[in-house]
Amino acid sequence: MVLARDSFGEEDVVGCIHLQSGHTGMAQKNVLLGDGNAREAAKEFLLAALEGRQQFKERYEEIMNGDLPVIFGPGGEGIASTPRLQHAETNLAAICVKLLTKKIASESDILASAWARFDEFAKRAGEECSAEFADSLLRQLQTDAAAEPVHFMPNYAVSLAENVRNLDLGVVQVCATEDILPEVKQDDWRISPNENGIRFRIPHRQVSKMLAGESADSFPSRRVIAPEGMLDLVLREPGSGSSQKIAGAVLELEFPKFCWRVNVNALHGAVAEEALWLVNITMSLVRLFYPKRDGAVPLGGFSARENHPTLKIEPQQASITLGTAETSPKGSHSGLQYVIGDAAKEHFDKIGLKSIAEAIYNASPKTVAERLGQGLGWLSRGRQAESRSERFLYFFTSLEALLSSDDKGTPIGQTISRHAAVIMFNDPHQRALLAKELQKLYGLRSSLVHTGKRNVSAAEAARTQELLETLYLAVLQKVKITDKFENFSARLAEASYGLPWLPDEN
Question: Is the pLDDT of residue 409 over 70?
Fold first, then answer.
């Protein structure tokens, strides 16, 4: 859930906090306006929507009988969802998402803008102004693509020691929540610290406008449900002899003492998902480079479940088991957390973790860094999963993300097993043993994916995690991650026949 600072009350989607920067950044100039296919798709959308609006009036009985699907525009106007309109929506969204190559976009972003523009044009629109509509829509999408959103989320996985104020890895930062207040607070917000962190009371302008002046007697609980969550109603002081009236509605958010601050290269609808992925990359980097004694097992070992980075574990999620040797009640428990103190921060600075992280966050296409970004997020998802089979599946997804190649002549299980063995060992005998072990584990992965067999033991899941974390750390420490992945993979293939592995071209 997201709060867009510059549109709160119009597009109130709340739960995390999202700021829309006015800075234009690296805009893709005229990439949409200059594309003929995008213009034609926008024109067709307008004409199909106009036709659907007319058919809603002409085929009302069919719609009421459920024979024709219907949608409602932003202004509440009924529009028949004809095959032509459905195709126009799909085509417009697909073309625009493909053109916005430097911006992560979702189809919902494109269609939300399209319907907003349709609502503006609907009263006067016709075939004669379809070109004007196309220009207006594509120009708006171009403006949206130039924005640089900043997204704030609660942090339940990484905390800061008293003398550490933040962990700055560039795109992603861990901050004390109280330190972000000057950046996010608006005049009509009420903010109060408590023992768990900071509580925000934020007016919901859209619902407030709808309910202002209504009798509070219609809402005995003094609460209403909105897409963003449960809203508390604010009541006016009652006049003499009159019932209480509603003054507005507010949403309460509670952030813990620490939060994530993420710069996101995405349009509005994709911000929260992309921000969480960047945080999961960060979680893996923090774990892999977290200071430990030589030869020591990483924090929590390879079986402890890691806290989800943004979701709070609720203690009421409990269960009771009967029919075993003893009745066993069970409550939720906190998972693995990381504390960043002076020693950890100094270690991260010494090894240049911020530079490593930024190379991955901002990776060029088809590089080793891009593969690391694709795989490190799945590695975190595996540590956060509770069931053995889910953990195991996410770990192998991470392994394939890092090492799978375009070589169709060799089974993927053999490729990733041999390449992983080359990275981890120089001795041919040790390589062979590890490759054999990985191929056996890959067989379990194939059974899970293709037949649904969940017969993965805790030991097998833990061993896979151990191998993956050792492998990723080796790549991060030995390989020039800005190199092309094709060259990295080719050198691994050569070495898999018994030759020494040269991690980079130099």
Answer: no
